[in-house]
Amino acid sequence: MTLKIHIKDSAPPYEQVRAQIAEQARSGALPVGYRLPTVRGLAESLGLAANTVAKAYRALESDGVIETRGRNGTFVAAVGSAAEREAALAAQAYAERARRLGLGEDAALAAVRDALRAAYGDQ
Prior knowledge:
- The protein is mostly helical.
- It has helices at about 15-25, 40-45, 50-60, 80-100, 105-120; strands at about 35, 65-70, 75.
- The termini are far apart.
């Protein structure tokens, strides 16, 4: 995740953080399930006050862009329709399982393609 805060920008720093994370989440640069840095950690890396980053995280959570899972951290949330959210969560779970099984990206993608062909037929 790459964020840049422009002090001379008319938007306040918390809004710059919020907008950049939201855009990266919506574009897929930050995938569903991506664990965000802690408030304190991100604040330190950007040279901002922790309250500034906390305000951005609260706004992002309110918008449904991120979700906080207690002590486990803050993650990019699935966005879109309920079906898209469920599919994104299933895809994330599959990706994590494939990695734990030691599959490379090509093998994991091939398995998905085969499963989709079986489910949808050769359209």
